[in-house]
């Protein structure tokens, strides 16, 4: 059993606090990971305010990089000393989605069987089955994707972001939207996930990439990541502006990275005939949209939800790590600030105010390459 520092929220809307928790040695199929970095994600805030479930207390954090320090019986795909990115899509290989050859939809993803606890024995619910705002965390071995090749110490922060938000945005374009070379893409909402969708559109070879937001600073950042056009929706009708930049037709793919009724309606209306709408922004529970069925039929195309960007970590993480190494994907640009484990609560405020793409918590020193 290991006593480590970790960030916990004990009840709904309570502040996140640093506590001493107990982490067991790995059992069969499990891995113990020394966490190097972990990004502060919107999903952690959803857990904090009770937007995911009521299974308090939560051990927060999930966008993480680290080093495997121990493995349990039967684990062969990773070994002690491996540098890894943690993921929450550890596919089971046996559910109906996996059997259909769609493991990125796996409906029974693996998590660690044993529980991490507070010192008094209270069981913790780890965010997305990971719980990585901690010096050590216990996960299913399949939640570890090995990073091949050398890593500079400062690169762990960027690579860990593939664990959730950045991967969700890139995957929404590459996987869910299936953007092809030469197509046009519009992204509504340029926070961390939306900006990642813009980076994904560049990787896919889109030639017209339109960023839509209310904030000029976010739009400037979107330009830096590859947007060819920007639209401030306080000043312009975004639907008309997207059509203007696409020859009057609308975009081939429109990504809603906000997830409210108004932006989803804009995404639906701003696509070309037979175009695709991708919803990657997470709606609040109970959000509704009144949909005219004649327009659904008349516009054709597709309306899709991006679950984690339809990501298969074993396939997508290594590819994106290589794109990063080749200088085609600016993961470093997503790291707005590096903070300590005691600074998570203020980081939530910065995120809510739209002041950062990502605050990254540096927890353990990275190993030498």
UniProtKB/TrEMBL annotation:
Record bears the keyword Transmembrane helix: yes
Gene3D superfamilies: Medium-chain alcohol dehydrogenases, catalytic domain (3.90.180.10), NAD(P)-binding Rossmann-like Domain (3.40.50.720)
Listed EC numbers: 1.1.1.306
Keyword entries, A-Z: Membrane, Metal-binding, Oxidoreductase, Transmembrane, Transmembrane helix, Zinc
Bilayer-spanning residue ranges: 156-174, 186-214
Cofactor requirements of the protein: Zn(2+)
InterPro entries: ADH-like_C (IPR013149), ADH-like_N (IPR013154), ADH_Zn_CS (IPR002328), ER (IPR020843), GroES-like_sf (IPR011032), MycoS_dep_FDH (IPR017816), NAD(P)-bd_dom_sf (IPR036291)
Keyword Metal-binding: yes
Pfam families: ADH_N, ADH_zinc_N
Domain Enoyl reductase (ER): from-to ranges: 16-361
Stored PROSITE patterns: ADH_ZINC
Gene Ontology molecular functions: mycothiol-dependent formaldehyde dehydrogenase activity
Entries under PANTHER family matching the protein: NAD-DEPENDENT ALCOHOL DEHYDROGENASE, S-NITROSOMYCOTHIOL REDUCTASE MSCR
NCBIfam families recorded: mycoS_dep_FDH (TIGR03451)
Family of this protein: Belongs to the zinc-containing alcohol dehydrogenase family.
Name of the protein in question: S-(Hydroxymethyl)mycothiol dehydrogenase
Record organism: Oceanitalea stevensii
